[in-house]
Structures are given as structure tokens and as C-alpha cells.
Specification:
Helix content: over 70%
Mean pLDDT: 87
Largest sheet: none
Low-confidence stretches: none
Order of helices and strands: HHHHHHHHHHHHHHH
Length: 292
């Protein structure tokens, strides 16, 4: 098959997705250094990165940017809604459970997408996918049981992680068609601004006001904006141009590994061995699901 001029090889998008997975792993670390901010406020402030990316898009591709925004209409609004809920539940998970639990559970997206598709009759899974689904469910149940026995107060964080996975799945599926028909610099800024609008409204509705970072929290907030948001999520969205949603999800599995390693090195957070074993079973199951 001859590659068309200007068309990037698939390895280019795989590299983007892999880099995104590694950058995602830094998010939970930065969040732990924001103890005075609630999950809603953190989610809102981090996506103000949309102002910067919109400015870049206007500066570099003004005509294409204006035309692209007009053509896309409210498509980025739906994506922003799903991404906002993913951010909110993920941050809430990190605030309420261990890093390994939060990052593993939020990456169970492929398994839940397969299960839902199977239940409604849209997907006929292979035996390998069913084996992966069974492993994922076993890992999640084992992780939850282990959490209940050692830190029952963290169970709500596990639920938040699973909800974050659900909205990440919706974001990836809806974002595929938008990314394929759009130039990255044209769509990513408005996407984050719509995400900021959703998180901002949710913050005002639930909390009444946005909690801004204190002086000591400014550096980790900047880190959260730059590494997992501007770099991580922009690369992940860009990779959808050449990857299927389940392929992008597979590369996201780098997040639990990098996050767990960073948590041990920086936060000195080490979970009981049974939690790591449960996480390993869960990730192995997800890998089988996406290997179909």
C-alpha cells in the first residue's frame, strides 16, 4: 500500500499515544501537591490551558482556525462535556484513593466499552476478548476487596475512577470523527475551552466558587497544566487521527505504570502487595480486550 503524500505512518500516531500515556502518569502526582483545592476547581483551572492553545491556533493558523471553528459548530462542546466529567472524576479518584488504584481503574475503559457493546448486541467478542473481560472484572473486584480490607474509606475513590473510565470511553469514541476531519491546532483550543466551561459551571453549581491555588501550589498547578494536559491530552487527541479508540486506550495503559513508579519515588506511596497484583491482573485483562 502506497502512503499518500502528507500522510503520516501509523507509528507516528503510536508514538504520540505512548508519549501521552507517560505524560498522563504525572497527573496524579501533581494533584497530590494540591491539597487545598477540590477536584472541581483543579479540573477547571487545568483546562484554562485552552486559552493558551486557542491563542496559538489563532496566531499560527488564523484563517483556518476561524473557518474550522465555524465548520465544527458544537462538536467540540460534546467532547468538552465528556472530557470535563472525565477530569472531575479522575481528580476525585486521586483525592480519595491510592495512585495505583485511581490510574488503573480509570484505564478500564476498553473493558467497559466491550461489556456494554456485548450486552446491547453491537459487539460479538472473541474468546480472547471475553477472557480479557473476565480478568479485568476479577482484577477490579480483587482491588476493591483489598481496598475494603485495608482502607475502606477509599472505596468511593474507586467508584470515581470507574466513572472517569466511562466518560473517557465516550470522549474517545466521539473524538475519533472530530479529530479525523480537523486540523489539530484548529480544534484543540476550543475543545479545552468547552471543557473549562463545563467544569466551571459544575464548580459554581456545587461549590459556589472556584478555589484558586495558593502560592505553594502554583508550581504543581503549572505542572498539571503543561505535562498531562497540554502535552498529554493534546497528544492523545492528535493520535486519534491514526489510531482506533481501543488502540489509543491500550497506549493509555502506560499511565498506571509511570504513575505508580512516580508515586513510590516522589510521594513514597507504596500500597500492599495484593493491590499491585490486582492491578497487574486488571491491566493484563485490558490488554487482552484491546488485542482483539
Amino acid at each position: 500500500m502506497v502512503k499518500k503524500r502528507g500522510e503520516n505512518p501509523k507509528v507516528f500516531y503510536i508514538a504520540q499515544g505512548a508519549a501521552a500515556g507517560v505524560f498522563f502518569g504525572t497527573a496524579s502526582i501533581f494533584i497530590r501537591f494540591l491539597p487545598n483545592m477540590d477536584a472541581l476547581s483543579i479540573s477547571f483551572v487545568r483546562v484554562l490551558a485552552g486559552l493558551f492553545l486557542t491563542s496559538v491556533g489563532l496566531a499560527l493558523r488564523r484563517t483556518a482556525f476561524v473557518e474550522g471553528v465555524r465548520r465544527l459548530g458544537f462538536s467540540p462542546a460534546w467532547l468538552g462535556f465528556f472530557l470535563a466529567l472525565h477530569f472531575i472524576f479522575f481528580v476525585a479518584a486521586v483525592k480519595n484513593t491510592s495512585v495505583v488504584n485511581a490510574t488503573t481503574l480509570v484505564n478500564t475503559t476498553p473493558a467497559w466499552a466491550l461489556l456494554l457493546g456485548w450486552l446491547v448486541g453491537r459487539i460479538k467478542p472473541s474468546r480472547l476478548s471475553l477472557a480479557g473481560l473476565a480478568l479485568t472484572l476479577a482484577g477490579v473486584l480483587s482491588m476493591t476487596a483489598g481496598e475494603f480490607s485495608t482502607a475502606p474509606q477509599n472505596l468511593l475513590g474507586n467508584v470515581y475512577g470507574l466513572l472517569g473510565a466511562l466518560f473517557w470511553a465516550l470522549y474517545l469514541v466521539a473524538g475519533k470523527s472530530v479529530r479525523e476531519g480537523s486540523e489539530l491546532l484548529v480544534v484543540v483550543g476550543p475543545l479545552y475551552l468547552w471543557t473549562a466551561a463545563t467544569t466551571g459551571v459544575a464548580t459554581l453549581f456545587v461549590s459556589g466558587s472556584v478555589t484558586l491555588p495558593s502560592t505553594g501550589e502554583l508550581l504543581p498547578m503549572v505542572g498539571l497544566i503543561v505535562f498531562p494536559t497540554i502535552l498529554g491530552h493534546t497528544l492523545s487527541f492528535s493520535s486519534l487521527k491514526g489510531l482506533r479508540p481501543y488502540e489509543a486506550s491500550a497506549l493509555n495503559l502506560l499511565e498506571p505504570f509511570s504513575a505508580t513508579l512516580l508515586a513510590a519515588l516522589i510521594l513514597y506511596e507504596v500500597s500492599p502487595i495484593n493491590i499491585y497484583l490486582s492491578a497487574a491482573v486488571t491491566l493484563a485483562g485490558i490488554y487482552l480486550v484491546v488485542s482483539r
